[in-house]
Predict the structure.
Amino acid sequence: MTATIETDVCVLGSGPVAAALASGAAQLGMRTMLVPTPGGFRPQRPVVLKALAEAGRVAAAVRSAPGFGIVAGAAAADWAAVRRHAEEAASGGEPDESRERLTALGVTVGEAPGRFIGPRHLAVAGQSVRARRFFIVPGPAAMPAEDALLSLPELPERLTVAGGGPTAFVLAQVLARLGCAVALRPAGPPLEGFDRELAALLMRKLAVDGVGLDDGPGVRITAEEVLPAVADLGLSEAGIAWDARIGIQADGSGRTGNPRVWAAPRGANHPSATAAGLLAGAVLRLPARLSPPVRVAFTDPELVQVGLDEESARALGVAFRLLRWPLGTIEQARAERRPDGVVKVVIDRRGRVLGVGILAPRAADMAVPWIMAVRKRLPAAEVAAAAPASPTFADAGRLAAASAVLPLLLGGRAQRWARLMMTFA
């Protein structure tokens, strides 16, 4: 090595989370360097999936228009326009990650990839980078499926989507709605990590949209879960435990076995929230715990899982109670003619929220109060008390939460207390 660069914070990675970490550290007054990881592909762009899903939803809405008394023509997909829509949606976030913006904030942006050569040193283009804190944001080890799909010049007549995760389900449904004959081929249990009942309901919904489960001829898109590219980072030299499938081993705050190195979790939530949590623990030394990971399938309806489902709670030996509320009873579901869905909440014996699964239109938005409830172990009654605007799909979550306290409110003790209070009225 010809020289050693001293810095306070070094971010090894690329994409929105890495950019948020670098800009956040620089705005805290830290000397900050951003170094790309070796190998890997461009980070996944969730907004591309959202944009494709919206195109599929609009196509389905056109076909369902007669049910609302609206006469519309046949829905036909212009693949070039759909691709353009997805790329335009993704391009809106790039300025925050641009080299110019990061440089203006005082971040030193490296061109050459970096690799650990010791617990405190990173090798970058023949130089050694020594930092007080390192953050790792590994990129994907394979091209994300949405990028592979957008690289197709034309929409094929027949297509097989290989995979059983959220991305595979989204792409299969979108392509079917755009007019492809689609087969979904999960390599293992479909939608692993989600509530089994909700996953089965979603699979039935995809079947209604025309998605089959038999492999067939035509173009094949691999949409297996994208693994992190960590093999070439020199993690062993840095004293960091890792695995090719699960990535870097870190605790709930993101701290690895090396006390100077923090790692962004797989399936990280919003980039700024993830960066704020990591910086709070690593730089500000505040008690910090990253928000529970939110697993989302941006299908129609959306599927969300936060915390424990009933199967995982049972496997852990946790004493729990299950709350559920069907979407079909909600006014908003009837107004939109979209009754298929359920809210399921797992609470402990004291009524605290351990996890929630939601299958509903805009389920990711509905999950916001539940994420806080799981993180803070709030009682379900607290969620029920925060009544949303009504009628909305969020009514289903409130009613599920309220079902935890209704037996107490309507029980004999409550009735005796009510009669006693009324004697003084």
Remarks:
- DSSP finds 16 helices and 17 strands in the chain.
- Residues 28 and 223 are 39 Å apart (CA to CA).
- The chain has three domains: 4-43+94-141+227-282, 145-224, 301-409.
- The longest helix spans residues 46-64.
